[in-house]
Amino acid sequence: MKDTDSGELFKNYRQQYDLLMESCRHISSTEDKNSIRQAFEEVRTTLLENRDERNEEAILHSISVARIVAEEMEMDTTGILSALLLDISYDKPEVIDSLKNQYGKKVVDILINLKRIADLRMDKVSINSENFIQLLLTMAVDVRVILIRLADRLNLMRIIDKLPNESQQQISIETSNLYSPLAHRLGLYRIKTELEELAMQHAYPEVFTGISRKIEDSRDEQNSYFKKFIRPIDKELAGHGLDYELKFRIKSIPSIWNKMKKQHIEFEQVYDYFAIRIILKSPFDSEKDDCWKAYSLITNIYPPNPSRLRDWISAPKPNGYESLHTTVQGPLGRSVEVQIRTKRMDEAAEKGRAAHWKYKEGPANQAETADQWLASIRSMLENYSPGQDEMSAGTKMELFSDYVFAFTPTGDLKKLKAGATVLDFAFDIHTDVGQKCSGAKVNNNYVPLKHILHTGDQVEIITTKSQKPNKDWLTYVTTSKAISKIKRCLKEAEYSQADRGKGMLQRKISQLKMNYSDEIANKLVNVYKAASTLDLFHGIAEGKYDLIKIKEFLLPVAKADESKLPDKPFTKDILVPAKKEHPVKALVIINEDTPLDDVKLARCCQPVLGDEIFGFVTVAEGIKIHRTSCTNALDMHLRYSYRIVKARWAEKTEISAYVTTITITGDDQLGMLNQISDTLTHELKANIRSINLSSANGKFEGNISINVDGKSHLDLIIARLSKLKGIKKVIREK
């Protein structure tokens, strides 16, 4: 290396060091400043041991990220040190031990977490901003990890022009979808806006340039309007002794573009793309009073739109944002947004929570207050509800450690219960994938079905056509979704096999010149000591029960005393509560082998609370609840008696709407439909779902679908409608 090169390099690094220390002016401790200087030298020395262009860029990158967290986030020494050491390789134990001794365990933990997040293949990830934040919270032991990750992305966007074009677009879209919402959540509005603008500039350059040019072309006009707008405000505020600063701000290009897309308008139709900000230089004790005083003075000049008033002074946003926003009608009838805040509030609005802690207490308590600040950031991120500006009191913090986040090969993020396995992951993708799962590759390593997943894992499910679920699988999974699906698969397989076994038995009985009946099936249940007819049929299909000797068992049946047959076929009891229409989920089932969410009301007979009912176990749709008077009931009992389960309504029921249909006939007279409708909705409180009536020769007939609370309600409806003049007949549809 030439001496001139070394000299230039040293000069450059010296400049970078001076800039970094200038950014750390809020760090008052000499010891902390020495630690930052030591880390700077560590980075420079380590990365220059094998000098090449990539290492030099890494040094500049680390310094730039450290400057962002210091100056733009005002982070503490721990955060600044972690950002500086970001690009040092610390895979070896001796390096980790050395860093711990020099900078402490907190810094090392942050670095390890940052590396874990950096190792995620985010270039392939399909993820929304909320899941992204949850993923970061799950992986980050310290909230500084999230802030440094955001600073890292901001620096990348500032130098994005150095990257290939195809990379620029992908990184920009990812930034817009993930990192900009993260900055917004943190209240880092200046960073949010910069990320949005840089992202749009490189993802949609033509749109960005077009709007930017139009803003520039109208700048003189806007400046003129601004002066005209603020002239009376300036006079009023000064006349009432308020110390203030006025700012004229053009809204961000992404914000303008979003409004154009949302309202389907052109740029020329966007009239409120600038805002006036009034920053009061008020002492802390009089902040609120001064803001409202300024609001009163301004709205005395220009009429406000009451629906656009936003009071984030009395009730700040969860991220700490404080300001009064209103929209007034300015000169020429144009709507103008006015923001009123104090200097402290303005700084906090630009730097988010980062600016809050330093106002709390004196330097002596700065470390403790900074820790409280970090805890408040994490709490705010975890408790935030999208679309809400206030956190409800007593909101319970979601424990993100109770979940793991893993990725599919295409980058889809799956959020699963902690302890979830490969098999849980497979069923979360799709039931068919789960049923055929024979193993997986996790981070390119082959693993078995019961392998436990960890946050950040890349999971590729391996399927085999011949694979089928078995009972052991229930011990491999932890999520209720997988357990329910496996039980359903096993139950469907059991009933499918039972159907095959019943067919085999019927054919064997036919060969013996006998007719199949439930009596014969029940006899064979006793002969083979089966648990039920279902068990009998299933056992026959599985080869458990030998049909070769069936002849000697069946011959006595013809002469057997009917009283010796079992009193009743195999049954199970279930409780059916009155529940909302569909699906019927809250069922109490005595036999716990039947999933609680596999019960539905049959559409053919539409049972309602109070009807005599029974359950029928279907092959693929769980248990269907039928009325005993259902037109299909006889066929089900004769052909599939082993699938019949006894059911009754739960004693304690939550009265709700059941769907049923009534058939009605009568004289076709003027106002009849209105009379029926009014009687149902107003007098009988029955919601009408549909009406299908037809008339001919002075008569009408048809069906009305309604919601009822139960059978007694339905009986009342039929009785009342039958008394209407002109009604001939009202019956419940079978």
Notes on the protein architecture:
It is a single chain. By secondary structure, the chain is α+β, with helices and mostly antiparallel strands. The chain is 47% helix and 16% strand. It has 25 helices and 20 strands. The strands form five sheets. A six-stranded mixed beta sheet has the order 12-11-16-14-15-13. Strands 1-2-5-4-3 form a five-stranded mixed beta sheet. Strand 18 (687-696) and strand 19 form a beta hairpin. The longest helix is centred in the last third of the chain and has 32 residues, at 480-511. The relative contact order is 0.05. The model is unreliable at 354-369, 385-400 and 558-596 (pLDDT under 50).
Blueprint of the fold:
Elements: H1 3-23, H2 30-48, H3 53-72, H4 77-84, H5 93-103, H6 105-118, H7 129-139, H8 144-158, H9 165-186, H10 189-203, H11 205-217, H12 219-239, E1 244-250, H13 253-263, E2 274-280, H14 287-301, E3 310-311, E4 324-329, E5 335-342, H15 343-351, H16 366-383, E6 403-407, E7 413-417, H17 422-429, H18 431-435, E8 437-442, E9 445-447, E10 459-463, H19 480-511, H20 518-527, H21 533-542, H22 550-554, E11 573-576, E12 588-589, E13 599-601, E14 613-617, E15 623-627, H23 633-639, E16 644-649, E17 658-667, H24 672-683, E18 687-696, E19 699-708, H25 711-722, E20 727-732
Parallel strand pairs: 2-5, 11-16, 13-15
Antiparallel strand pairs: 1-2, 3-4, 4-5, 6-7, 8-9, 8-10, 11-12, 14-15, 14-16, 17-19, 17-20, 18-19
Helix pairs in contact: 1-3, 2-3, 2-4, 3-4, 3-8, 4-6, 5-6, 6-8, 7-9, 9-10, 10-11, 11-13, 12-14, 17-19, 19-21
